Amino acid sequence: MYKEIYQILEETGKVKTAMVLNGNHKGEKCLIKEEHCTAFDGGQAQEFWKEYEEQLVSCQDTKVIRIDETDFFVEIYVKNPQLIILGGGHVSQPVAKIGKMLGFHVTVMDDREEFVTKERFPDADRLIQGTYEEIPEKIPVYENAYYVIVTRGHLGDSASARQILKRPYVYLGMIGSRNKVKLTREKLLREGFTEDQLNTIHAPIGLPIGGHMPAEIAVSITAEIVQEKNKYNVSYIDEAVEKAVWEKEKGVMITIISKRGSSPRGTGSKMFLDREGRSHGSIGGGNVEFQALKYAPKAQHGEIKSYNLSNQGGANLGMICGGEVEVLYEIL
Fold it and tell me: Given a cut of 80, is residue 61 above it in pLDDT?
């Protein structure tokens, strides 16, 4: 199951799952893709998931949710965010530089060959020359993608937006004056795109910080991207855990599914205990991690244990941060 999750992550950068925490289907898990839930058990519980599909699809955070009397742990994994800049002009250069500093894989595309060179974009991971109508052929679909449209005119803007609106993305921003944005929007509406679709575009692009120089505009654009990136609580992949799952295959996955008050690690933090008794990753260190690892070999699949880190309970666990965490055990 986790191998499948990691494989999809490598291909798309984003995966969403849900696991049942109570009731007759406790411990069962599904993959949420587009508007549907697909059971990991090969389809035996597929009918069960249909009843909860709409609410699970709409959940945008890694967290525990209750639907009727059933509790679910919804988990959204993200990895390798991609920043795709359409247009290689003067604003694109600092956007690419800052994007790389922020940990994005950076792509720059322009229809002019002389505008997509290593001299102009030394920090870019991928440079593409081509028309914006060629986006489907030249830029693969990717879930964890952030698109910045900074072409030299509204024709390039509308051509880019037309292609991107047909694919998944986390962020889509378009530069330009209000009049230029208005022209592009009207053109796309006439082509059949809906108001809801167009309302997902950040236009004019960037946070309103009053910048005028290319670098200042780039700061406003990338600040808005960071704001959107951190809008929801998601699970970032621990490479040590992923590597252990691929190599060891079997073991116990230990995940923080909720926290109250202060704790060293957040919801979605994972640790993997392999069959040889070695741990990979961390759920915060200290005695609480020690207790979780000690209990893991006898845990049942889907079992949840609470660890109190408040003043009285925390003293017993050697913690001073306070609060409480709930830990989920999955047998792989």
Answer: yes
